[in-house]
Amino acid sequence: MKRLAATCVLGLALNACQPDVTEEPVLSFADRAVFTTPLQTEPPGSVVIVLVDALRADWLGSYGSQRGLTPELDRLAQRSFVFENAWATSSWTRASIGSLFTSRYPSSHTALTRDDALPDRNITLAEALETSGRFWSFGVTTNPNAGNAVGFDQGFDHFGRPDPGTARGYAHDAIRLIPAEAVTAYALELFDQQPDGDTQVFGFVHFIDPHDPYLPHPELTGDPERTEGIDGSRQALDDLRKLGRDGATSDTIARLKRLYDGEVRYTDQWIGELIRGFETRGVFDDMLLIVTADHGESFFEHGKR
Fold first, then answer.
1. Beta bridge partners of residue 292, listed in sequence order
2. β-bridge mates for residue 207, sequence order
3. How far, in Å, CA of 16 to CA of 35, rounded?
């Protein structure tokens, strides 16, 4: 939903001192926003960005998938703007979310490699909203590539991750991921910490589950035999990738996709719970909710399309 992020969120940030008037920005090639006709609109209530790590657009029903994995997001799409010409600025997390936070290309914000933090000279969306005085902000991430240690907490009143004790993974794998259930619970807990007064909430909620390593969810996909025996750990996937496209059989790729299916379905379920949490609190109808991804996922498709 790149267009929604560019139009609504950037407009909020740059016009925060004029809450009764927003302007529609057109992103230019000059690394700045160029404004067109002002739009008379009511300012939104809270603003929440939900980012799903490594989520392919073509796995969502709202983008034509017949897999039936995203009923919650598909219901949301039916009452939302859905943008079909949205592109990530990078194929990996830090550079892509750096662009989301700063409205700059990676070459401009310079958080390009694993050695690069997001420099303080960048003005982030959270910092711009903080300056307006209208927003209290929180961020939840379980991916260290977009965490406090690399500068992505700039401007947030609270930025952190759920209890690391909730992380899970393969016994033989060094990688452990904090699941969507814990992310949703922590995000709602932080949302409830909003101070009394006239401030609204700006939230950033980062789900990592579709990212590898892939954990099986047979209770959601209903076909354990199609994922049984497939190791979705980072170690196993790295070994498989070393073989290249010609080294992975079509059956192995199909089984990996089924593991990914389960992760997508599981994440969708907990995004639905997040939305219901906002509805229960009576804030959803006035909320600007943006759902996007930092990049997709490739199943040995490089060079094929």
1. 51
2. 52
3. 14
Q: Considering only CA atoms, which of 186, 2, 185 is closest in space to residue 81?
A: 2
Q: Which amino acid is at 237?
A: L
Report the alpha-carbon distance of residue 231 to residue 223 in Å, rounded: 16
- Residues 190 and 140 sit within 8 Å (Cβ to Cβ): yes
User: What is the average pLDDT across 225-240?
Assistant: 76
Is 111 a residue whose pLDDT tops 90? Answer: yes
Q: Which amino acid is at 123?
A: I
In terms of Cβ atoms closer than 10 Å to its own Cβ (0-12, 13-18, 19+), residue 227 is: buried
Which two tokens mark 153? 């907490």
Q: How confident is the model at residue 269 (pLDDT cuts 50, 70, 90)?
A: very high
Instruction: Provide the token pair at 92.
Output: 């990996």
- Listed in sequence order, the DSSP H helices in the chain are 2-4, 10-14, 71-78, 93-102, 106-109, 125-132, 180-191, 218-221, 234-243, 250-280
pLDDT, residue 38, reads 55
Block residue for tokens 């070393």: 242
Block residue for tokens 């990530």: 88
Q: Distance between CA atoms of 282 and 271, rounded to whole angstroms? A: 17
Q: Which CATH number fits domain 44-293: 3.30.470.10, 3.40.50.2000, 3.40.720.10, 3.40.710.10?
A: 3.40.720.10
How wide is the angle at C-alpha 142 spanned by C-alphas 141 and 144, nearest 5°?
A: 95
Report the chain's mean pLDDT, rounded to a whole number. 84
Q: Which amino acid is at 63?
A: Y
Helix (H, G, I), strand (E, B) or coil at 22: strand
From CA 89, how far away is CA 294, in angstroms rounded? 8
The letter for the amino acid at 300 is F
Each residue's pLDDT tens digit, 172-191: 776 789 999 999 999 999 99
Model confidence pLDDT, tens digit, residues 118-164:
999 999 999 999 998 899 999 999 999 899 999 999 999 999 999 99
